[in-house]
Amino acid sequence: MDSEFRLKIPFFERRRRIRLPWTILIFGVIFLSLPVMNYIALGQRLSIPWKYPRTLLGALNPFEIVLLLLPIVIGVGLLMVKRWAWWLFLAYATTLLAYNAAILALSRQLYNVNALVQTAIFVSAVFYFLRRDISAPYLRMYPRGWRLQKRKPIVVEVIVDGIRRTTLDVSDTGIYVDWEDCYRSPGEEVHLTFRIEGHEYKCRAGVVRVDEDGAGIAFRGVTASFRKELARDLESLAHG
Asked: What is the mean pLDDT of the chain?
């Protein structure tokens, strides 16, 4: 068994090419293209040809220009799977919704109603599709202290792509693995197998964070029953 384990290590030690979750890839590209789409829409609304950028941008105040260009920075951060990109998106979404609501309150025009509704739908879509790959892992993963509730670290054996490791924490959205010198990169996909309270869990997952202590890994494609059963087992283990 030990010899077989050692023979497998060189294969897994080779770094794989980063594979982004499709949600992050799609929304990263959308954010990069947003300034172009908004620029064209602005030209159509003001009846100014797109080939006159000085005239078009001159119709905007400095704050509006920042809102126009900021999605490029967010898109780059998402594609690089950076934590700051999520926080920047939260700030951008809050500011944009508040700005559109203020403009609507002042003008009460149909165009501004559509702008507010479209912004709300887009922000909701980003929250819904990226909540597992970015928001939940970054806000809840051990050892970060940003959680609203405290709980003890959960240490169990986990098999990551055939290699036995140990968790430092487990939640219904992912695990934090004791993994010194982790050779995985954020965005790479792995396969997990672990047992909690006698129940075996197997699933796909994605690396969302790597630091000097280990790696934060978020579950992917799991069902609601998977999360519900895992949450129940974790609650039982915490009070056991």
From this structure: 80
Comparing CA positions, the residue from 177, 169, 234 lying closest to residue 207 is 177
Give the pairing type, strands 163-170 and 174-178.
Answer: antiparallel
pLDDT digit string (tens) for 87-110?
Answer: 898 899 999 999 888 888 887 777
In CATH terms, 157-238 corresponds, of 2.40.10.220, 1.10.357.10, 3.30.2290.10, 1.10.260.40, to 2.40.10.220
CB atoms within 10 A of CB 158: 21
pTM tops 0.70, yes or no: no
Instruction: Compute the Cα dihedral for 165, 169, 171, 176 and give only its sign.
Output: negative
Neighbours of 31 (CB within 10 A): 23
Contact call for residues 105 and 115 (beta carbons, < 8 A) = no
8 Å CB contact between 116 and 124: no
Q: Write out pLDDT tens, residues 155-190.
A: 899 999 999 999 988 888 889 999 888 888 888 899
Residues 68-72: contacts with CB within 8 Å, 24+ apart?
Answer: 68/35, 68/38, 68/39, 69/35, 71/31, 71/32, 71/34, 71/35, 72/31, 72/32, 72/34, 72/35
Q: How far apart are CA 175 and CA 137, in angstroms?
A: 9
Domain ranges of the chain: 22-140, 157-238
Query: 62-79 vs 22-46: helix axis angle to the nearest 10?
Result: 160
Contact of 201 with 226, CB cutoff 8 Å: yes
Tokens in use for 15?
A: 């770094």
